Amino acid sequence: MDEAIKKPNVLLTLLEVRALAEFGLFCLVWPALTKAPSGDGHTVLIIPGFGVGDTATVPLRYYLRGLGYDAQGWGLGLNLGTNARVRQKLVQRLEALRQSSGRKVSLIGWSLGGVFARELARKFPHHVRLVITLGAPFTGNPQANNLLSLSQLFTGKKFTQQDRDAFEKRQAPPPVPTTAIHSRSDGIIAWQCSLEQESLQTENIEVSSSHFGLVHNPQVAHIIADRLAQKEDDWQPFKRNT
């Protein structure tokens, strides 16, 4: 745990309003984005960030469905943090999608949803094809973000030693191909907290985006489409010129 990492400053947080412009650009360049490689029809489960639900991921899911993927929301309402019920329901959701399709499921997790996605893949790697995280706070300093206080307000939980121990355990990457997308101008999560440990099946990709815009940033959409288009058993690191 690197407590030297500090949460983003006020200026970066104020600049999160640019997420609106990023969505506008996403819509503007939609025709170009649809030229990405066609999908193979496998299921993609998208887990939203803290405080939002599936509505926030509609544009991304619509885009991926247009490419040929079976893009699904998590179906659990607003993401207000984890508890036994949420964990159970999320596992059931993954298992149902795996069974109905007969194929492994790709996981995309935005912010806190990325933490959930990594843990699902860690515990059920036989169900998961790959993981893509978008500004997810899974390493570094768990307190280096601007949503912790809000999360504690909603859940009534304080950060305890048990939470610290759990945080330390989940920093190792899951045993499936994993792509961690991060932005140094993220105004909510310190970007260093979204970096995956280097290995033969992990990668860190930097983009220029707000935190709230990661889920509909055109550059991110391009990267996601590229990552999902790979053959299941032939994962390769991302190449910028693709």
TrEMBL record:
Domain AB hydrolase-1: 89-167
Pfam families registered for this protein in UniProt: Abhydrolase_1
Gene3D superfamilies: alpha/beta hydrolase
Annotated protein name in UniProt: Esterase/lipase family protein
Source superkingdom: Bacteria
